[in-house]
Design goal:
One of its GO terms (cellular component) is extracellular region. The chain is mainly β. The protein contains two helices and 30 strands. Helix 2 links the parallel strand 1 and strand 2. Bound molecules: 2-acetamido-2-deoxy-beta-D-glucopyranose. The site of 2-acetamido-2-deoxy-beta-D-glucopyranose has 6 residues, from loops.
């Protein structure tokens, strides 16, 4: 039956132009995929899509029992788009998928990783999807030239969003990734956003919020190339909210590298206008990564350990603020280039240096564009143009 229906749908799709394919939790895989006759399974729509197709998900919660495999490509002028239909709320719940969670100390097969498992697939665009309770939320392996916008990844059993392996020209805008944890590792590896064990140019994370994840907010472990990170806020990571014992979570706001000998390459990461607050370890750390980093106008406040910690990379630090961090504002080796930062002056920065330290100001819902509401959060009372601002442009 299913084969016949899929064939029927294929016959209905125009071959010259990208088609629209509709999916609904109340649809049927015997349907045509037209708006009035939506499919039920997202995978069925992915299997039908060709370059230029748009897959529209109608509102509701999808609960597939196996993850969604995306292993084909669009093309540069004709991407394949997977998105919620016209502002409708779409949740994909991975709870019924394998690996939710895997046993303690067990591995998770590559193919099982991710509610969306994107491998060797290029020129996809994803908009307005919430991915929950999965074996990772988004898991991209050896995939380039993909775009993700207004994705929520929460409460997954591994990292919320992970780019793995060869990865170039991926853009991730306005990601909210929170509450992700890894029972199989007691907190050792579930991050909000991770770019791991690979290399590639042109990857950018913009406007993300990464919070209350068990390990780090952001982790660029064994990724050997520059990643651009801007307008991103990371808080509350590395706290044992799941009673894991022993607890292995790290809790850096921005862990900008790390790994074994030979797995660390010079990665010239560029970090601009980012905020780390109330993480259980450091705000920003190179974590033994090498490379020429550029950190401009970031703020680390109230993290448990150090605000900015750079010893192996050579970071150019300009106009950043470290305030009220538990151990000390900075830990910088002699090679670091530091100018115009809060710690380069004579005053000591505390909560009272800011107009507002009300952390709820950055936790509201996003506008349809993806922007969060601009506020006075962590703006210096002095009016100096240093540190991060939520008045993004
Ligand atoms: C990334 O984008 C650049 C500029 O468009 C392009 O030259 C390069 O080939 C792309 N890289 C990959 C791996 O597709």
């Amino acid at each position: 039956m299913k084969l016949v229906s899929v064939w029927t749908v294929a016959a209905l799709l125009p071959s010259c132009l990208g088609a629209e394919i509709y999916v609904s939790p109340s649809g049927s895989d015997d349907a045509t995929g037209a708006i009035a006759s939506p499919l039920k399974s997202i995978q069925a729509a992915v299997d039908l899509a060709t370059a230029g197709s748009t897959i529209y998900l109608r509102e509701g919660t999808y609960s597939p029992t196996t993850n969604i495999q995306i292993t084909k490509s669009g093309s540069a002028g004709s991407p394949i788009v997977l998105q919620a239909y016209e502002g409708e709320k779409v949740v994909i719940d991975g709870e019924e998928m394998p690996g939710t969670p895997a046993e303690l100390d067990a591995s998770l097969d590559n193919d099982d990783r991710g509610i969306l498992h994107i491998q060797d697939a290029e020129y996809w665009e994803f908009y307005d999807l919430e991915l929950i309770n999965g074996p990772y939320g988004v898991y991209s392996r050896d995939a380039s030239n993909n775009h993700y916008e207004r994705i929520i990844t929460r409460d997954n059993y591994e990292s919320g969003f992970q780019l793995q392996g060869a990865a170039s020209n991926n853009s991730v805008f306005y990601l909210d990734s929170y509450g992700n944890r890894d029972p199989r590792k007691n907190g050792e590896s579930a991050d909000g956003f991770a770019c791991k064990e690979g290399e590639g140019e042109g990857n950018i994370l913009r406007g993300a919020r990464l919070w209350n994840n068990v390990d780090d907010g952001l982790d660029l472990w064994e990724f050997k190339s520059a990643v651009t990170i801007e307008d991103t806020i990371s808080w509350g990571n590395g706290v044992n909210r799941w009673d894991f014992s022993p607890f292995e979570g790290d809790g850096n706001g921005f862990k900008l590298g790390g790994g074994g000998d030979g797995e660390i390459g010079p990665a010239n990461h560029i970090i601009t206008n980012c905020i780390a607050f109330e993480n259980s370890k450091d705000g920003f750390t190179d974590n033994s990564q090498t490379g020429d980093f550029t950190l401009t106008r970031n703020t680390a406040s109230n993290n448990a350990a150090v605000g900015f910690k750079f010893a192996s990379a050579v970071a150019t630090l300009n106009d950043n603020i470290a305030a009220a961090n538990g151990e000390k504002p900075t830990s910088l080796s002699a090679d670091q280039i530091s100018e115009g930062n809060s710690w380069d002056g004579s005053e000591s920065w505390t909560d009272s240096s800011f107009i507002s330290v009300d952390t709820t100001l950055v936790q509201g819902s996003r506008a349809a564009s993806g922007l969060i509401e601009a506020s006075d959060f962590l703006l210096p009372k002095s009016g100096e143009a240093i540190g991060a601002t939520t008045h993004w442009s």
